[in-house]
Amino acid sequence: MEQMRMLAFKDEKFTQKHDPEKLTLGINPESLKYDRGIVYRKDKQLGSTNGSNTFESYEPEKLSFNFTVDTTGVVENTKDTDQAYTKVKELEDLLYTYNEEGHRPSYIIIAYGEMLFKGQLASMKIDYTLLNNEGIPLRATVELSFSGFRCSEEDKKKYSKLSPDMSRLIVIKENDTLANLCHLIYGNSRLVAQVAKFNNLNGFREIPVGTELLFPPLKKS
Predict the structure, then answer these.
(1) What's residue 209's pLDDT?
(2) Is the preceding peptide bond at 105 cis, omega within 30 degrees of 0?
(3) In the predicted model, is pLDDT for residue 162 greater than 90?
(4) Which residue(s) pair with 169 in the sheet?
(5) Does 147 lie in the same domain as 165?
(6) Distance (Å, rounded) from C-alpha 13 to C-alpha 109?
(7) Are 63 and 29 a contacting pair, CB within 8 Å?
(8) Is residue 202 part of a domain?
(9) Is residue 181 assigned to a domain?
(10) pTM of the model as a whole
(11) Cβ–Cβ under 8 Å, residues 97 and 105
């Protein structure tokens, strides 16, 4: 029977492998919970109970599951020296521990059957459920939750953001200009005034890096 594998990487493009690179679960999860969501921008007028909901973005996909770490000897290939603490520590090193090269916890690929999930750890809960006479845990229930992640290049391939009929929320990066973004999105750099007005900007020549701008559907006139 195929076992669930978790592979760790230092970079967002999943090319630089973490050391150790991977971990295979001894006992597979009995179920998987997979969530998707959509973010809408609510535009309500004064005195109105209803407003138009404009699409902004997809929320990161979420994956969560529970599994058991068992070192009592009932799991195949378990050694007499194995301890639940040690197995959990291996899991923490792969998923949770700060990576000095990447300056963050690792990016993770989870492979199980036909599922291939790319993401990063969101939460990790450990419940030690069986201890021996010396107080050493022999079994633990692990609850993991992951937030999906794609680098910007992958995101562009999966969800094209170049249609002028779709609203987009864009974070201004270094060297970005409103004119260039209008040209990229609408094919017309002269729409800067409309976008600036929509976002309540006093001007559009020097927009601070990190500013979030919503680009609404506009015609190319």
Answers:
(1) 86
(2) no
(3) no
(4) 214
(5) no
(6) 11
(7) no
(8) yes
(9) yes
(10) 0.64
(11) yes
Between CA 168 and CA 40 the distance in angstroms is 11
Question: Do residue 131 and residue 192 come from a single domain?
Answer: no
| Residue whose token pair is 């050391």 | 19
Task: Fill in the amino acid letter for 201.
Answer: L
CATH number, residue 123: 2.40.30.200
Helix (H, G, I), strand (E, B) or coil at 13: coil
Bridge partner residues of 62 (DSSP)? 35, 147
In the block, tokens 């998923």 appear at 95
137 has which bridge partners?
131
**Cα(95)–Cα(46) distance, rounded to whole angstroms?**
47
Structure tokens at 96: 């949770």
Angstrom CA distances, 142 to 38, 128, 185, 215, stand at 29, 9, 45, 42
Of 80, 92, 76, nearest in space to 132 by CA: 80
- Rounded CA-CA distance 84/137 in Å is 6
Nearest alpha-carbon partner for 12 in 96, 101, 114? 101
User: Percent of the chain having pLDDT more than 70?
Assistant: 85
Domain range holding 200?
A: 160-215
Kindly state whether residue 53 falls inside one of the protein's structural domains.
yes
Token duo for residue 63: 């994956």
pLDDT band with cut points at 50, 70 and 90 for residue 165: low
Whether 17 is in a domain gets the answer yes
Q: What span, in angstroms and rounded, lies between the C-alpha atoms of 94 and 78?
A: 20
Is residue 204 within 8 Å of 194, Cβ to Cβ?
Answer: no
